[in-house]
Amino acid sequence: xxxxxxxxxxxxxxxxxxxxxxxxxxxxxxxxxxxxxxxxxxxxxxxxxxxxxxxxxxxxxxxxxxxxxxxxxxxxxxxxxxxxxxxxxxxxxxxxxxxxxxxxxxxxxxxxxxxxxxxxxxxxxxxxxxxxxxxxxxxxxxxxxxxxxxxxxxxxxxxxxxxxxxxxxxxxxxxxxxxxxxxxxxxxxxxxxxxxxxxxxxxxxxxxxxxxxxxxxxxxxxxxxxxxxxxxxxxxxxxxxxxxxxxxxxxxxxxxxxxxxxxxxxxxxxxxxxxxxxxxxxxxxxxxxxxxxxxxxxxxxxxxxxxxxxxxxxxxxxxxxxxxxxxxxxxxxxxxxxxxxxxxxxxxxxxxxxxxxxxxxxxxxxxxxxxxxxxxxxxxxxxxxxxxxxxxxxxxxxxxxxxxxxxxxxxxxxxxxxxxxxxxxxxxxxxxxxxxxxxxxxxxxxxxxxxxxxxxxxxxxxxxxxxxxxxxxxxxxxxxxxxxxxxxxxxxxxxxxxxxxxxxxxxxxxxxxxxxxxxxxxxxxxxxxxxxxxxxxxxxxxxxxxxxxxxxxxxxxxxxxxxxxxxxxxxxxxxxxxxxxxxxxxxxxxxxxxxxxxxxxxxxxxxxxxxxxxxxxxxxxxxxxxxxxxxxxxxxxxxxxxxxxxxxxxxxxxxxxxxxxxxxxxxxxxxxxxxxxxxxxxxxxxxxxxxxxxxxxxxxxxxxxxxx
Length: 708
Description:
Elements: E1 5-9, H1 27-32, E2 44-48, E3 54-59, E4 63-68, E5 75-79, H2 80-87, E6 98-99, E7 104-108, E8 112-117, E9 122-128, E10 134-138, E11 145-149, E12 152-156, E13 162-164, E14 173-175, E15 190-192, E16 198-205, E17 211-216, E18 223-228, E19 238-245, E20 250-254, E21 263-269, E22 275-281, E23 287-294, E24 300-308, E25 329-333, E26 340-344, E27 350-353, E28 361-368, E29 371-376, E30 385-390, E31 395-397, E32 404-409, E33 415-421, E34 428-433, E35 438-444, E36 456-463, E37 469-476, E38 486-492, H3 511-518, E39 522-526, H4 536-539, H5 549-563, E40 567-577, H6 579-590, E41 597-601, H7 612-619, H8 626-632, E42 644-650, H9 659-671, E43 676-680, H10 691-706
Parallel strand pairs: 38-39, 38-40, 40-41, 41-42, 42-43
Antiparallel strand pairs: 1-36, 2-3, 3-4, 4-5, 6-7, 7-8, 8-9, 10-11, 11-12, 12-13, 14-16, 15-16, 16-19, 17-18, 19-20, 21-22, 22-23, 23-24, 25-26, 26-27, 28-29, 29-30, 30-31, 32-33, 33-34, 34-35, 36-37, 37-39
């Protein structure tokens, strides 16, 4: 490994030597208040008022404030108490707030949906659902509301007519909910047509999927809760897409064309309401087809494009239609090695490759005046910037300051609200013009941690064995002394779709890491090969060998740490959750003796126990890759354990089921190795809420006590 290290940013985040730092940060505050009292100030829920240069935001979630690009002196137009009185509602804040037009807005609490007019100061309840309703999906134009109850779909129309879309008593047939265990960018299961007169919805047949038992220990006696959990290589769900027409009250169904347990992903409607576009991915996830279907009959029309890859394909973005009067569309593809934008006609002919970046395009934000706005890392993979491109491929950088940006654009595209933060900027709200030039500064947040004893973060890079640049974050205590030797806690995730080191406030770190530094530790993180925002070649090196190149890079990080004169190389600990739990335990077993202490939360311990949609993408099926599964399995390496290992698991984890840890503990018993295990009863894949303080106390006290 080449031990070159470059410090990109080594500024003192919180001016650790200033005399103002006198308060002690408690672990409870670090865990519970990072997004509370310590979260940088911003214009919360900023919204442009349609067809104007006015904007609104919430003050304390209780007051609706209004200003304009011309006059940024905001005035309160309504508070939540007044709104509740006018509506006869019991809203705790302006939840679900969205402008309907220049004068009227919608709010909802998930069950009750209201409109309110700011001119005549009147509002009304437009939909009221009972507590069994889930997944409410509102159509702004018609004010129709679709939702699910248990495994069926219902609609309330704007005239409060209730329509039953599906009426299936078989609990194995589930309609209107996310499918494929929310992979492929799937986050919901209900999709309104642009005109609001038809509803597309996912349906999955889970009849052949195994029932997996979870124990509800709050009941006497305990009760078994069954979930459907398709493990790698096992029977999976069979998907369909239904299209319900409100006028005819008829439903057309679409099934996969290339295999009954293929995936139906990235569903979108064409602007003319006549077609739906769906990306079908085969079970092996190395081939996809972007298909068009007739929205009335469900009949297949044509394949617009298809892609294959010997590792995997992973469409995660719907077709984007830049014009309301054309079915020509923009597709995000990774076929060049990085996500880029491609413009096609509705016959599937490529009109223009709009971008040719050698960095990652993340998401399309929207279109204004012929410009398509999108988020991207830009040339610095730690950034989240906004670019725009026209349909001829001319690109414009909108957010020119390095950092992490999110924007809102006026209806006419003349002005852009930009909220951003960076390593040195807690948060700032500004108004830009369409070319990205600064028009107005609205709010610059203070550092709300300035009065606390808190350390520094250094963002740097090392070079891996194959020459790849790997980004790192090293957190030091406020009283750091380069003449001393410090123990190190390495925090790891290491898997796809995650990037831990970012150019944002706190650099992507959790505030508990700064608390840990104040206990006399260095806290180190490296984004290894396989993690996000670096392109396909960087991420796909894990294919069929999860836990191999990732650990090589983590060990490169350890070698770097040991080269520092102020690191105690004999006192290293590692902690991570989920894929990070898999990495933590792998490092303790496959690189035994490097770390004295490991704390692994919700770890994957054997990929044959993990769900098919994710596991088969990266590892193929067990029968296709037996050697890869055996090598990655922690059971294979359990006899190598040295040092102290604490395994943690939520007892009703429905993502990484508890069988992972049970099987590993059993294997440790078989090989005569001692370790520690701690369950969190009735918690799912992570420990949230107030119990998270208990979790982090358990994790960090274990590290401090054992790493001596």
